[in-house]
Amino acid sequence: MNLPQRALEDIKVNVKLKLAALWASFMFLYIYVDYFHLYMPGSIEDILAGKMFVFDITQVVLLTGLASVTIPALMIFLSVALTAKVNRWTNIIVAAVYIPFTLFNLAGEAWMHMVFGAVVEVVLLLLIISYAWKWPKQQGCSTLTWGGSGQGDQLQ
Fold this sequence. Notes:
- The chain is mostly helical.
- It has helices spanning 15-37, 43-48, 59-81, 84-104, 112-133; strands at residues 51-52, 55-56, 146-147, 154-155.
- The protein is globular and about 65 Å long.
């Protein structure tokens, strides 16, 4: 007996939601790569000795680290909240800035998990740039003018 095949419903997802989801995915990887770094030999000892990579752990270094995580975290919300024009350019610029920043994190000793994380993070950032660059245009959008004799003016 042949039953009729029913097509699966596929809802078009707004570009703002796609961008927010990409930033959320980026944030998960960003945080987990740093978290897994704690399991690398010598990491805990360096932290206890007040060192992070080649930097002394200071309030400024920690504030800078928090700022570097805050920006993509805020992009999750901003990708949904900003107007299209501002949103598009903000996503393109921030993602473009984070590509070299992400690759800089491979400086020094880079383990496979760090390289893998960086590659996926860069792919996500390139997708953000691509979706923002190709932001859909409104259909049939034209300049609206007011016309008429002053009585019962109508939008033309």
